[in-house]
Amino acid sequence: MGGIIIFKDRKIKFGLTVFALMLMMFLAACGGDSNEEDNSNSSDDKNSEETTEGPAIGQKDLTQPYVAWARETVSTHMLAELLEMVGYNVELSQVEAGPMWSSVAEGSADFHTSAWLPATHASYWEEYQGDIVKVKQVLDKAPLALTVPSYMEDVNSIEDLKGNEELGESVDWEIVGIDPGAGIMQNTQQVFEEYGLENWNLTSSSEAAMLAALQSAIENEEPIIVPLWKPHWAFGTMDLKMLEDPQEIYGGDGDQVYTVARKGLKEDAPRAYKVMEQYNENYEMLEEMMPKVHKDGQDPADVVKEFIENNPDKVDEWLKGIPRE
């Protein structure tokens, strides 16, 4: 009896041991599946994060002031449209040059894409550089100069204006300008001083009024002198020449154009700042859009949307790594 009992106890113990081993193997297998599932989920989550990661949107409402100049109208609407594609609400505010700069410096506006430096907006930059940061150079060559129709063959340099009684009387000693706060107007006043053009006067109007006067003079083949710049659609539709500026009052080979922002915008709206850092321009795109807006009278918002639709690769460059909403 006692030997049989011992045999049974061992048999039971053996069975329990086998059961325990099987249970451990089963639990290990389940744990492995669970770990694999967890790893799979973790990998999926990581991949999901990688597809949606990007700069935080931050402050969603932005204000962008601009002056209704040829390039600025197109550029401003383009940047606004790109920012709205990634989740922002952008309010456009059409102003003159002074308020454009001061509003960004004071923080009542967030950014503008119309800083012509180092020459044209030198006075604004000197005044506000403590409160404004350069985000990105968007255009590397933007020349400015006094400009005349090409048929004015005897006028090729600013120096040709000094003491030129025949030319002066033919235009009433007047250079037809744009809005008084524009940097090119300030530079033109400096031109009068540096080149000794005491008899000459600069009249203020608007870009539209100046261009209307230019077009009228060309239609009648009359002399006219205006301050003008590139890129501008007028050079594609009128036969014009820029006068030489030996003293480089207008900046020599040309300014560079920057997007500038108020201090703190990078922290307040990181995604918007990233778009601005990646946005750039070239003459080809501007010369495609400017005439549609300023010559044909199309809505600039529609013009930039058409460009975006027709140039997806360019838009992908501007918005690389940024979620679209």
UniProtKB/TrEMBL annotation:
Signal peptide annotation: 1-31
Domain ABC-type glycine betaine transport system substrate-binding: 65-309
SUPFAM superfamilies membership: Periplasmic binding protein-like II
Location in the cell: Cell membrane
Pfam families the UniProt entry points to: OpuAC
Keywords noted in UniProt: Cell membrane, Membrane, Signal, Transport
Region entry Disordered, spans: 34-57
PANTHER family (alphabetical): GLYCINE BETAINE/PROLINE BETAINE TRANSPORT SYSTEM PERMEASE PROTEIN PROW (PTHR47737), GLYCINE BETAINE_PROLINE BETAINE TRANSPORT SYSTEM PERMEASE PROTEIN PROW (PTHR47737:SF1)
Protein name: ABC-type glycine betaine transport system substrate-binding domain-containing protein
